[in-house]
Design goal:
The structure holds two protein chains of two kinds. Chain A is of the alpha+beta class. Chain A has a domain of 77 residues: 2-Layer Sandwich (hypothetical protein PF0899 fold). A three-stranded mixed beta sheet of chain A has the order 2-1-6, with helices on one face. In chain A, helix 1 packs across helix 2. The two termini of chain A are 32 Å apart. By secondary structure, chain B is α/β, with parallel strands linked by helices. Chain B has a single domain, classed as 3-Layer(aba) Sandwich (Rossmann fold). A seven-stranded parallel beta sheet of chain B has the order 4-3-5-2-6-7-8, with helices on both faces. The chains are: A alpha+beta, B alpha/beta. Chains A and B meet through helix 1 and strand 6 of A and strand 1, helix 1, helix 5, helix 6 and helix 7 of B.
Chain lengths: 113, 225
């Protein structure tokens, strides 16, 4: 359940940004969850529902998009969708030491007034 | 009003981890983050590691547990300083917990050569939280079975070394060491894999040599910084 930490962080980031802009209410939040972020969208939704009550985010519509995993082959630089457990390149069979997409949870945008 | 942020939710933890890393480099301290399942042998590994190295180096330990100080008690005779973090239910440690201990006035952790962090027993969440460590080490015991690296590949992919522990029990387990070594190679071919037994001492020397190599790299970086 590290999703509670992530949602607390979301509330802090949006809360601070909205305060700076003088916004009173947040209506909509677009949240991107990487498919290999090991964060459950259901657990995030649960945490949002309970933690946002009584805050500037109370009543906001949260739109969650799952971002596909993408890796770059260490050997041939091909961008591909790696599959667990070995995340191997479909072209040359080598591994990818880094993922280019699908590992993070991030806020794309929010709407407020 | 629509505001594009593109900000990561791990941002605060990553910043805290970088602060820890800067502090550790300034003081020339190597920090090792140890992750693994409950019962994989993390504390026993630390006991033997301290026994092997504590005459040579000042070693600090940060023990992460949900509850109790059992593990810290096991280690306090041998370490330079042992500090316990109880997360009271939380499944992982975060960089700000470590930063808090490093920055405490009465903490002598920054005078240590090596700080070991024993993370919460869990192969999922600890892999996601950078603590500011220099190296992350995963511990996999042969009693857990061959399937663990395939089931939890990220934990092993983000590790700089994996210790396969309890190898003295290999004759009594259906654990195929060769298969796991091949799997580990596919998951992360730059990771060091060291089979080890605390009971027989097998692999302990290789592990200590690997640690000393990391310490040497860190001390050199400290001098250059």
């Amino acid at each position: 359940m590290h999703e509670l930490s992530l949602v607390s962080s979301l509330m802090q980031i949006i809360g601070e940004d909205a305060r700076k802009r003088g916004l009173q209410k947040i209506n909509r939040v677009s949240l991107i969850i990487g498919e290999m972020s090991t964060s459950s969208s259901r657990a995030i939704e649960f945490a949002l529902e309970h933690l946002c009550k009584g805050t500037i985010l109370d009543g906001a519509a949260f739109e969650i998009t799952i971002e596909e995993l993408q890796g770059k082959c260490d050997s041939c630089s091909l961008l591909f969708k790696p599959s667990p457990p070995f995340f191997l390149c479909p072209s040359c069979g080598k591994g990818c030491s880094s993922f280019t997409k699908g590992r993070q949870v991030y806020i794309d945008f929010y709407e407020g007034e | 009003m629509k505001i594009y942020l593109a900000r990561e939710l791990q941002e605060a933890n990553k910043n805290n981890a970088e602060d820890n890393r800067t502090l550790l480099l300034k003081n020339g301290v190597l920090m090792v983050n140890i992750i693994g399942s409950p019962g994989s042998g993390k504390t026993a590994l630390l006991e033997q590691t301290l026994k092997a190295l504590n005459n040579k180096y000042r070693i600090g330990v940060i023990e992460g547990d949900l509850y109790t100080a059992e593990d810290a008690k096991r280690l306090e005779q041998r370490a330079y300083q042992v500090l316990q973090i109880n997360t009271e239910g939380s499944c992982h440690l975060e960089a700000n917990y470590i930063g808090h201990l490093l920055n405490q006035n009465n903490s002598s952790l920054l005078s240590a050569d090596i700080i070991f962090i024993e993370n919460i027993g869990n192969l999922v969440c600890p892999a996601e939280f950078d603590l500011g460590e220099d190296v992350r080490v995963s511990v996999l015991s042969v009693t857990e079975g061959n399937d663990k690296p395939r089931k939890y590949p990220l934990a092993f992919k983000v590790s700089d070394a994996t210790l396969i522990t309890k190898t003295d029990l290999l004759p009594y387990c259906d654990f195929n060491l060769d298969l796991t070594l091949r799997d580990m190679q596919k998951i992360n071919d730059s990771s060091e894999v060291i089979p080890i037994s605390i009971k027989t001492g097998e692999g302990l020397k290789n592990w200590c040599q690997w640690l000393e190599k990391q310490l040497d790299i860190k001390k050199k970086r400290h001098v250059c910084s």
